[in-house]
Amino acid sequence: IFSRKGASGFSWASTADQVTAGISAAGLTAIVTGASSGIGAETARVLAARGAHVVMAVRNLAAAEAVRQAVLAETPGGSVEVMELDLSSLASVRNFAADFAATGLPLNILVNNAGVMATPFSLSKDGIEMQFATNHVGMHDYQQTPTCLMNRFYVPSYRTFILNSIVFSIFLQFGI
After folding, report:
1. What is the CATH code for 41-174?
2. Is 121 helix (H, G, I), strand (E, B) or coil?
């Protein structure tokens, strides 16, 4: 069942390189949250390989810089930058929004990948439970900033992608 290809011709085993083969993202700007590891790093790599200018929005700048260097080594001439974003902090979200707006770049693709899971109970700087603050409130707050709103309504190619864990679907099926 898992090896069966869908109507798109792809299956769960298809790679990002296979799915995007022949697609050009030249001239597009993509923000990828949580791009310092895992799916975020892979998303940043493939978008850069397809010609997009990629903004890696991350908490861990050192880890992101290592990923950035690896992407650029694989994609000579790629355009990748690292910007600080801690989604658990509303001040950081607003600072990121202002810093991105100052670049003058359009926002064509927003990949909401960053998140935390099963963290011990703690509160964010804003007094919000940490997992909820990071996974929901911070990204919602960013999407309500003037820069994001303007791009959503005035950039024809604007797209938002929200990623989540398969664990979420288990909770939906069986309850928490």
Report:
1. 3.40.50.720
2. coil
